[in-house]
Amino acid sequence: MSILITGGTGFIGVGLAHRLVEKGEDVVLFDIAPNSQRAAGIKGNVKIVPGDLKVWPEVMNVVKDNHVTGIFHLGSMLSLPSEENPWASFQTNVAGTMYVLEAARLFNVKRLVFSSTAATYGLGIGEVVTDETLQRPINMYGAGKLYGELLGRFYHRKFGLDFRALRYLAVMGPGVKTMAITQYNAWMVENAALGKPFECFVTRETAIPVIYIKDAIRAAEMLYDAPLEQVGTMCYNISGVSPAQSAGELEKAVKKFIPDARITYKPDRVAMELMQSLPIKVLDDSRARQEWGWQPLYDSYDKVVKDFIQEVKTRPEFYGLT
Ligand SMILES: NC(=O)c1ccc[n+]([C@@H]2O[C@H](COP(=O)([O-])OP(=O)(O)OC[C@H]3O[C@@H](n4cnc5c(N)ncnc54)[C@H](O)[C@@H]3O)[C@@H](O)[C@H]2O)c1
Prior knowledge:
20% strand; binds nicotinamide-adenine-dinucleotide
């Protein structure tokens, strides 16, 4: 019996894998571009299966061959790559999610947690987004993820699959490699901790709710472990530092710990246009709090930055920063 993580050697996936191994689970990591360095510390306890979500037999095989009882479906093309190549994004995020759900149905997987996104909100939203806000995404990534949420609900209703989903906005932590406009948060802290200068590509006033990687992983674990009767809403917003604070506030938090951090601002026009299309200042996660007791441990920039810097300084190899 094992737990499968698709996108398992990615930023969130590999951190989750470490947590599951600590709990004694057998873990299988399925990834199109496996980064075995990130899984080095748990090598003996995980199986890494290179594979492509776009290739349905590879998805079927990884579930069939490993007696998978639970799945965290995190594998995905993120927002900017999806905008650049919507055709591959469709195959990965839409068809790939269908294949994962089909594999779960055919091989009697008990539970599936899916990572969705606040990009499923779009047209007509204001600064506060709740689980009841109308989901009308404006980009390929958000549209694909919304389809995943709705398909999961269908598999639950039609086939009884225990489907659950989390909507993250900006996950920040050390070692992020995938480009996203919200990554200035992580790279500001990471560069300061490594003694490197950072030129921020958004304005000092730009603000977006974030969640620290350790909280993002904990939320996925908590949702997976929650008793079924507590999972009424099924797809949940998840937040950490919300209401949003500005890049300037983050700089202040960094300088409390690293006073000589070299942070400058050179806003990029495209990045700013994209940020302006994302007006969310509060990602309301009260349903997750009420139903299965979600509570972030890192709910201020000070708490996030303190732990982030310590992680970079004490475990740079773990985050691929050496
Ligand atoms: N990081 C964030 O801020 C954020 C925000 C909202 C939602 N999410 C969601 O969380 C999940 C994990 O994101 P992450 O931050 O770890 O990103 P990531 O890019 O680090 O990880 C995604 C992983 O998926 C793999 N992958 C991509 N295409 C694949 C394919 N065709 N077949 C198999 N594997 C494939 C990649 O190789 C990568 O390892 C994603 O579903 C993402 O949409 C992340």
